[in-house]
Amino acid sequence: MKLSIPYLQAEAHTNLQQLSLLLDQVPPVPLSNDSWPHIKTSCRAELAIAHTGQAILLKFKISNDYFRTEARKINGEVHLDNCVEFFIAFDQSGDYYNIEFNCLGIGKMAYGRQKGKRTFVAPAVIREIETLTITDREGEGFNWEMTWLVPAEVFIHQEISTFEGLPASGNFYKCGDDLPESHFLTWNRVDAPAPDFHRPDCFGELYFMPAADSVTFLK
Questions:
Q1: Are 81 and 193 spatial neighbours (Cβ–Cβ below 8 Å)?
Q2: pLDDT in tens, 49-76
Q3: Counting runs of H as helices and runs of E as strands, what totals does the chain give?
Q4: What tens digit of pLDDT does each residue of 10-22 get?
Q5: Do residues 102 and 83 touch, judged by C-beta distance below 8 A?
Q6: CA distance readout (Å), 39 to 45, 59, 85, 144, 167
Q7: pTM
Q8: How far apart are CA 176 and CA 107, in angstroms?
């Protein structure tokens, strides 16, 4: 699949809560269960994504989840919890970033071209990513949303002056490996017999739109 990522005008003093509201203008894309439909789940997830030129903005909305999240260390096994993830590659080298956060805002980020041979990004760099989580635990289900602000500087193996007009590839995920009802939801379909998010061959195309082209794209 292809995804055009619109530009959002934001002042330097705009806080993450305000940016989260701005992301509600962006048409969401579903993270579906199509990759592994034999793994049944009632969890539903969708994502809105935009950029400011200097940062990527993401807003995940999750419903019918099951709350289980631990206060792990940065670069720990956050995928075992209520977790949302963004993988992105900026070139054809085969190397890509994986960025993962559980709903407590504890992050993990690494770079490389193979699942088992990745280099973690320093915790100080990961802390530059701002996150905001809003939860609703009323009733049986656990509903939550999480907004990220990912500055260009965290992509330490690239020199990104602006995201405007930049092509990339990537995928978005919702998982919870150790939840009572484990699930593995994806934006772009992953053709693998078992859940495996580290499949850059299954990334979709991403395009960061220039500001001039984004006006009519938004609601």
A1: no
A2: 999 999 999 999 999 999 888 889 999 9
A3: 2, 13
A4: 876 689 999 999 9
A5: yes
A6: 15, 25, 19, 22, 33
A7: 0.95
A8: 14
Token pair of 132 as six digits: 């905001």
Asked if 29 and 3 count as a contact pair (C-beta separation under 8 A), the reply is yes
| DSSP per-residue letters across 93-123 | SS-EEEEEEETT--EEEEEEEETTEEEEPPH
Phi then psi for 127, rounded to 5 degrees? -65, -15
The DSSP bridge pattern shows strands 107-114 and 2-5 to be: unpaired
Neighbours of 178 (CB within 10 A): 15
The answer to whether 109 touches 96, Cβ cutoff 8 Å, is no
Q: Are strands 107-114 and 44-51 parallel, antiparallel or unpaired?
A: unpaired
Could you tell me how far CA 154 lies from the centroid of its own chain?
14
Rg for the chain (alpha carbons), in Å? 16
Amino acid letter, residue 17: Q
User: Could you say which DSSP state residue 16 is in?
Assistant: H
Q: Which tokens go with 108? A: 């993990």
Strand, helix or coil for residue 161: coil
Say which DSSP state 28 is in. P
Find all residues with CB under 8 Å of 139, minimum gap 6, and list them.
Answer: none
Which residues in the chain show pLDDT less than 70?
12-13, 138-139, 214-219
What the block records as the tokens of 84 is 């949302």
Would you state the structure tokens that stand for residue 28, as one six-digit string?
């969401």
Q: What residue ranges define each of the domains in the chain, with the CATH number in brackets?
A: 2-8+17-217 (2.60.40.1190)
Tokens of 44: 């539903």
